[in-house]
Amino acid sequence: MLSIENVTKRFGNTIVLKGASMNVGRGESVGLIGKNGSGKSTLLRIVSRILSCDNGSITWNGQSLMGSDVRLRKSLLYLGHEPGFYPPLSALENLQFLAGLYGLEMSSEQITEKLGEVGLNVYQKGPIRNYSRGMLQRLLLAKALLITWDLLLMDEPTSGLDTDGKGILSKVIKLWRDEGRSLFIISHNERWISAHVDRINVLENGKIEAREGKIESRGPAEMEEEP
Amino acid sequence: MNLVILIRKELLLELRSREILISMITFGASVMLLYAFAFRPTPEALREFAPGLLWTVILFVGVLALHRSHSLEKEFDAFSLLLSAPVERSTLFLSKWFGSFILLVISQVILLPIFFLFLQLPFPSKIVPFIGLFILVDLGISSAGSLLSGAVMRSRVNEFLLPLLLFPMVTPLMISAVKSTAAIMESQPFSQWKLWLQLIVSFVIVFGLVGYLIYDYVSEE
Fold first, then answer.
1. Chain B residues with CB-CB distance to A70 below 8 A
2. Can you give the pTM of this predicted structure?
């Protein structure tokens, strides 16, 4: 289980997180919503250890994620708002590098197969510098299909995706939930997120509160991006 | 294993983009040509100034490599991939250190003949100590530079901050490099420049260790 306890983060004079606390249980899918600039991405970057926090603790299955033990991070995967890949390299090269970092021995064919699942196998050889926002988002999705993880941290996963891309995303999220894997998704799109998580938390004024009321499954039309 | 993967990535990035080496060699060769044609010193004066001129060019060229190596990590926020991956931060430092060291060595293989050719200087007869000295000083420049460029990479004025902080930091290394190079070019006995070499080795060990130990803190946002 992921446990975030009293996390605070300050940027200069601005306090973004003021004792934020929440949990993501094993096999649970939890959403976090909040206004722009409320600190959602900051919290996710802290959990991924890209950012350090000023106070508080973050544990994964009872072990601190704030220490230097990198083995713990093998079971977590962060899909950020930015692509997090190298622009001069191709999709194949980026994923080969990533697989190597996670200690996976995968052939080009296996990686190409993953790219095919997100509709990118045709574009696998050119530099990703020329990719559109939606294609980069699909590449991020391929990253999540490639790596074996227990907890997936997703920051605005629908950003830039077309209808087909959102369909693929919804399909794989459903698959992961059926497999009992844990998801922590942040988005400003409450309609979309409510269709993909078990419960929703709200980040407001630096603190996290549970969203009241039952989450209902919604139809495809309601999953579209809010105007 | 991760170190090999990371260094391979550094070199693959350069192979694909060809941005760093081309800019290093073009800039270095231009400055050397400028020195060769702008100054008309006597051969004695030239021999006296040559080591200083040479290391000034190498330091400037090194800054180009160090800056570009980290700025590629900023594009598309690729550095977040490294920070969130199951990789020790000290390994990230080593990969940046050895990656920029390799690029420095490659650039020098091309620039050194240009320097000696255009300034009409005889190539040092003691080739092994000469190469050994360059390897050590390159390790020093790239260790201090990788640590600093990791620390300033997220600053909006990192292009300006890196040389501003690096140049004073590597001054002892540069003085030692110039003195040792002059001694080797004049075929002086080792005892005459042993102290300078010890200073260079100490610099490499200190900055290598400091970078290895504190890169975890300097690399976080």
1. 86-88
2. 0.89
